[in-house]
Specification:
- The chain is α/β, with parallel strands linked by helices.
- It has a single domain, classed as Rossmann fold, CATH 3.40.50.150.
- It is built from 9 helices and 5 strands; from the N terminus they run ααββαββαβααααα.
- It has helices at residues 9-18, 23-36, 72-80, 118-128, 152-166, 178-188, 208-216, 219-227, 229-248, and strands at 43-47, 64-69, 87-91, 104-110, 129-138.
- Strands 3-2-1-4-5 form a 5-stranded parallel β-sheet.
């Protein structure tokens, strides 16, 4: 990876606990693949798999699924997950995948490709994919909305405060928005058949602590936590208290 983050054991454990699993996106990918090359689903490789939440979702569709990550801590947590028997993990950089040329049916990267050396990763993904194989890059933006009765707008205003406070700690490698990064990668792929999905809205029911915990796994919060732990805790508690007060009104 061009940028190595998410490697502390506590951070890896929080990642497993709080990150939202992209089941709806996996369904979209498999629907696309089934239209193009049905019955050719032997090997899927999930690059930058982290603690494996997305990796295991591929298991029902493939003979073998392998998650790769550069972080030993993330893979250690992934191995504690309830993994299906056809799921395994390997430690390696995203730009140096331990697979033969043309061996892989699907290469995915879920909320990870923006951290890679992107030109090198795209070349490596192209190398390992079989003719007609699929490369699927998934991510999400900060355009999240909270919904809770008639106080939804107030809750979202409070959460925008959270994002604004974290913005100065956003890693410059990904800039102000990851959307442009993914558009650039999409445009740079010369595949004759490719599909851009601008937005797939996913609705999840979470407790307030689950939402706060998810934001705390973001790289910007982790950077603040490293720089000033007391301020990071104060910020989280302030947002939590404001949301609690609003939801009780």
């Amino acid at each position: 990876m061009a940028v190595r983050l998410f490697e502390g054991k506590d951070h890896a454990a929080a990642y497993l606990q709080y990150r939202v699993t992209p089941q709806e996106l996996i369904s979209r990918i498999m629907s696309y693949m089934e239209k193009k090359t049905p019955n050719q689903f032997s090997l899927a490789v999930d690059v930058g798999c982290g603690s494996g939440q997305g990796t295991v979702l591929l298991a029902p569709y493939f003979t073998k699924v392998i998650g790769t990550d550069v972080s030993p801590a993330q893979l250690e947590v992934a191995l504690t997950n309830s993994n299906p028997p056809n799921v395994s993990y390997r430690q390696c950089p995203a730009e140096e995948l331990p697979f033969a040329s043309g061996e892989v049916d699907l290469v995915t990267a879920m909320t990870a490709a923006h951290w890679f050396d992107r030109p090198k990763f795209l070349r490596e993904a192209d190398r390992v994919l079989r003719p007609g194989g699929c490369l699927a890059l998934l991510s999400y933006t900060m355009d999240m909305e909270l919904e809770y009765g008639d106080v939804s707008n107030t809750l979202n205003d409070i959460c925008k405060e959270f994002y604004a406070a974290l913005l100065p700690f956003r890693n410059p490698y990904i800039g102000s928005s990851s959307v442009k990064i993914y558009l650039d990668m999409f445009d740079s792929c010369s595949y004759p058949d490719k599909e851009w999905n601008e937005c797939l809205r996913v609705k999840k029911t979470l407790p307030l602590n689950g939402y706060i915990g998810m934001v705390e796994t973001f790289s910007s919060y982790q950077k603040l936590l490293q720089k000033d732990p007391a301020e990071a805790e104060r910020l989280s508690n302030d947002i939590r208290n404001k949301n609690n007060t609003t939801s009780r009104q």
